[in-house]
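Why does residue order matter? Because the sequence determines the fold. Keep that principle in mind as you read this record.
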Amino acid sequence: MSEYDYKQGKNRVESILDNYMKIEEKNKLPSDDNFTFENGYLSWVTAIFVDIRDSTSLFSKNDEPTAKLVRAFTSEIIEILRDDENMREIGIRGDCVYAIYTTPEKSDILECANKTFYINTFINMFNKLLENRGQDKIRVGIGMATDKELVIKAGRKGVSINSKVWIGKAVTIASKLSSYGDKNFYSRLMYSPVSYENFIDGFEKKQPNDNVRNWFSYQSGLNAYGSGILMSEFDDWIKGGFAE
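Structure:
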């Protein structure tokens, strides 16, 4: 059995704790190549989490239809989230697909919100396809949050086990909000106040003939804004039976 060298471990921990770390505030978060174990960046980011409800029950069905469902769901959510030059991380955590973006401008935050509208509509399409195959529909929560985060490279220096760590509120709040979406009568889409306040003016300008603020409801218990916004052309195509 291998033994952990705790004396060397103490030396490594103290070396990191005592070492100088350069923290830079950046308008736009740099790409991965700029991260080292000696630096960190403070920047505005937006996180989106898409979480399947009651996944414990779903994943207990270790059969082919469930495997195909999970693969199809995660694949297409990633497709919607990945197409953005501002994306800095994307992945899967258990039953949840997530993406994190650098969002230096309000227009970037609005673009993230636009992705959530597409995902919300996609869930309707996905459930329709499941229904057509005689399978149960799924319920999903979609959380989005924006904040200034400290981003560092963490892991074990000198080996290939490392990743970015997001220190702040955006990632944790987006994850939390996704766990409430489409649950206990909350809307499927849930936004942090910082996200909402930074995209709503731009959204109004894009939809001058609509009272878009009425499409959101403030949930005081969660300190979040819920919505059920759908992409109209996409939704009409679903309701029309996917007619060409």
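Residues 83 and 115 are 10 Å apart (CA to CA).
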